[in-house]
Amino acid sequence: MTPLLLRPLCLTVSVVSLLFSFASHAGLELKLSGHVSTDIHVDLPGKPNETAAWMLDRNDNAAYLKATATYKKATLEADVKFRYRGFQSALSLPALSDKSLLDPFRFDSNSAFIEIRDVAKGLDLRVGRQVINWGTADTFNPTSNLNPKDFEDPLLFAESMGNQMVRADWTPRKDLTLTAVWVPVFRGSLLPTSASAAFTDANAFARAIRNTTDPDVAALIAAQSAVSGLFSYAFTSTVAIPETSLKNSMGAFRMAWKMLSFDWSASYFIGFDHVPRGVSSSAGSAQGSTVPIALGLEYPRKQVVGLDVSGQIPGIEVGIWGEVAAVIHDTLKTDISPGFVLPSGKTTATGIQDTAGVFYKVTAGLDYSFTRWLLVNAQYVRGFFDEFGASQLDNYVVAGAVIKGWRDKLEAKLFAVVDIDDGSHIIFPQLILKPFGPVEFTAGVFWYGGIASSKFGQVATGPSRAFLKLQLNL
Amino acid sequence: MLVTTFILGASILGNAEGDALLKKADAANNPFADQTFRIKMIVREADGREDERELRVWQKGGVKRRVTFLAPADVRGMSVVIEDSATMYVYLPAFKKVRRIAMHARNATFMGSDFTYDEMAAVRWASDWTAKRVDDDDGRIVLALTGRKRRNTHRRTMKVWLDPKTRLSSKIEYYDTEGRLKKTETRGGLTQIDGVTTQTQISMTDAASGHSTHLTVVDLKVNQGLGDNLFSRRSLERVEP
Asked: Which of A355, A455, B66, B203 could form a disulfide with A419 if both were Cys (CB 3.0 to 4.6 A apart)?
C-alpha cells in the first residue's frame, strides 16, 4: 500500500471521525448507508486481434459507506468505497511478501464536503470533494465538465469522480438559481487499461488523424502500412499535467431558470478536457525489429458555453430534453518524428486535426412510458465522451427500454448505442432482480460490435463482456 | 354493462352539485396550510407476503409535495418534488443529479406498490376532475369523477365515497377506460389534529391480483410555515432540505 492509495481513505476517515465527534452535540442528525457488492466480468470473444476472450476481467469485492451529519444549517457528507481487486499482481519473489500486491485493493471517495445552507438569504455554500453533474440529457451531458470521469468500467458509462471544489448557489427567487464553481486543481479521468491502444493501434491512429491533409502525414501512414508486420513498436508515454497554479485552476458559472413551462440552464466553463490527447510521437532507432516510440500526451485547454432545456411536449406528455455545448479550443495537432526523412525533406511532420476554433457537442432526446411497466428512451448524440475536435465527432443514436415487473423486483433493461457514421455499436442488455429485502442481482452483457477501424470495434474500447453483480444494500 | 353505462353517463354529465361537493372534499382532505409526516408503507402480496417501505413527506397547500425515501436501502435518499400538477422532479443519489419527470411517468408504479406516482401526488381533485353526485351508499355520498384533462385519460373515471358530515373521502374506486374496476382505495384511521379531523390510514387493493398496499401516517405535524423553496428543483440538489 502506498501513501497515494491511502489518501482518499485518510480524508474520508477524518471526515467520518469529525461526524462522530459532532454526534455528541444535541440536535445533530447522523445518517449512515452503504452496500457490499461482488462484481465479476468475463471478456467475450468477437473483436479482431482479440486475445482476452473468456478471461476474467473484473473480480471486485467492494464495501461502500456513506455518512451524513446535519446540524442546523450545516451538513457534512463523506463516503468511501473499499475495493479488493481480486487479482494477484505480485510478479516477483520479493513481491510475494507484499500483501498489497498479492491481494491488491484501493479506496475511492466521491464526497467529503461541508454544505452550509442560507449563509445569506438564498445563498448556499459547499466546500470539499464533491460531484457536480450539469445538463438535462440522460448520461451524455456535454455541458457537464467539472468532474473527471471513470472510464475504467464501461458499464458505468463515464460516471463522474469526485474532485475538490468550492461551490456557491444563490437562489434570489424560486425559479432562478445562479451557481459558481471553482476547481483549484485539475485532475484527469480514469482510463481503461485498453486506452493505450488509442495511441498505439494503427486503426486508432488513422482515425485520430483522419482530417489531416498534410502530404508528409499521408506519406507516413502509407509507409506505416507498407511495413506493417515487419516491425513491432515499443511505446513509452509521458503525460503533461497542468501546473497546479491559479492560472490553471478551473471555473464555471451556471444560471438555471424556468420559462414557458420548460427548465433552462445556461453555463460557462473554463479549464481542461479530462481526457488527454496525443500531441507528439517520436520514433527512435530500431533495435532489431523493434522500434521505440515516445508518445507525448496533454490535456487540451477548453472553454465551454452550454445551454440545456427539459420539459415535455404539451398535450402528449412525452418528456423531451436538449443540450448543446460550444467548445472553444486551441489548434489540435500532433508532431510526428518518424525517424526518417519525409518527402518534404523534413524529419518532423505536423498533423493538424483541427485549427483553433469552436466545435459543438449536442444531445437531444425523449422518453415515454407506454404502460406502467414499460419506459422507452431515445437520444441523438453528437460527440461521444472522449471525442474532442470537430474532425473527431461522430453521430450516435442511443435508445433503450426498461421493463419492470413483479412489483419492481424484476427489471429488464435493453440499451443500444449506434455510431451512425460507421455502424459500430454497443448492445447492453441486463436483468436486475431484487428477490427479497436488500439483496440485488444484476446480470447482463456489454457487447461491442463493428470493424477494427470503427468507433466501438477498435481495440482501444476494450473487449465485450458478460457480467454478474450481487449487492447487499444496507 | 351497468357500470359502463354509469361511467359514461357520469363522464358526460358532471354537474354543479357534484363539483361543489368535490371542492368541499378537497377542503376537508387538505385542512392544513402545510404538513410533514412519515409514511410506513406495507406492500402485501395476495399470498400474504409483505415488504416494507418508509417515506418522509412535506406538503404545502393542495399541490406542493416533497417525498424522500427512507427505506428500503436501495432507494434511500431518492427524492421527488411535485411543484404543481404539471411539474415533477426526481433526485437520484446514485447519479447525483436532478431530472425533470414528464407527466407520462406519473402513471408508473410507485416503488412497486399499488399506487402510481400520480395517485401519490394527487392531493386535490377539483382542478383535474369534474364530478356528479350519482348515488348514496350506506349514508355516504357517492360522486362519479371524470378527468378534465387529457393527462387523466389513462384512468378515465373514479367513484368517490364522502362522509356527509366531515366531507372526508372514505373510499375511492378507480376504473379503466373500458369501465372495469381496477383498484379500490379505502381511507380511515381518523384522528384529531388542532381540532381538525384527518385520516392516517390508506389502503389500495388491486382488483385483479388481490395484492394491496397499506399506508400509515406517523409523526404528523401541521402548520409549521414551510417555505416554497422546499418544493423546488434547487432544494433537491441540497444534501438536506
From this structure: A455
